[in-house]
Amino acid sequence: MATRVLVVDDSGFFRRRVKEILEEDPLLKVIGDAANGQEAIDKTKELKPDVITMDIEMPVMDGISATKKIMATTPTPIIMFSSLTMDGAKATLDALDAGALDFLPKRFEDISKDKDEAKKLLCQRVQAIAKKRISLKKQPSSSVKSPVKHKGSITTAAVKTASPRINKTGGIDLVAIGTSTGGPLALQNVLVGLPKNFSKPIVMVQHMPGTFTPAFAKRLDQLCKISVKEAEDGDRLKAGQALLAPGGKQMLIEGRAGNATVRIVEGEPSLTYKPCVDITFRSINNIYPNNTLAIILTGMGADGREGTRLLKSSGSEIWAQDEESCVVYGMPAAVVDAGLADNILSINDFSAAIIKRV
To answer: Which phi and psi (to 5°) does residue 105 adopt?
Structure first.
């Protein structure tokens, strides 16, 4: 049975364009459209789509407000279309906080310069989030708050106390995290539970455009007890600080353990992911070959599998997010299916498990 899609945008031209692209895929069917957020709410109740594509800026009711109401009444996987600007980045992060599962650039040429590839990626992302079943009970409640350093607009479910299966007892000198689709809220969930005096440095690779990573790092820094910043060339790895790879570039770790630094490079144009988890993890293996805790969270594809394979062969420890708590069980599945995972955890268990292990 084809995945049923509701297309929401105030531009009739854009709605038609999205419909034409999606219906080129026999596994997708557009069952309706809406020109504003209120229409989206009404059509969602009426048509019960499997997925909604949602614009952010619309008359009558914007996409963020519509997303909040849909998630509160008729929870449905939502993918946002966003402009690649700083304002667009903030709005997109607000939309993800409201309950949207994924986002894509509104200009298809920003998805890929190859038109056919852009169409393919759009269809793949819609199909991927359609598989995520959402229920009212899983939505964050405003009465349940995570500990924060400063007040922010995001609310998250409280971090659950975990009893992780710890297989190894050797020292951990670095925590490295890779993620993609669903990663912004997953990373937030993990980081907000770490104490200010967390004793190890953290590096993070999130598939995200370059205009988004500064806003995302700033938001995490406001919410977390530890320090979070977008990585810059020459940054030193410090205990209690998480460095986020800048979008559109590659992040390498160089130097030696105890005095490692970040190198930011353009990377090869042919690379699919910028930043790429595998590239960062391979560089980490040169500095922390047997004392890295490498974590793969929700995301499409298999980026991170080969990097974790290398780290595991050198003696490092590999953790993966479980299928149930992933938005898309792609990257963690690649690691688990390859037999590389030492531990498989729900997203709500990572903070406590990391604290216990480190």
So the answer is: -60, 140
Is the pLDDT at 204 greater than 80, yes or no?
yes
**CA–CA separation, 167 and 54 (whole Å):** 43
User: Is 48's pLDDT higher than 50?
Assistant: yes
**CA atoms lying within 13 Å on the CB side of residue 74:** 16
Domains defined for the chain, CATH in brackets? 3-137 (3.40.50.2300), 174-357 (3.40.50.180)
Catalogue the active-site residues. 180, 207, 303
- The mean predicted confidence, pLDDT, of the chain is 89
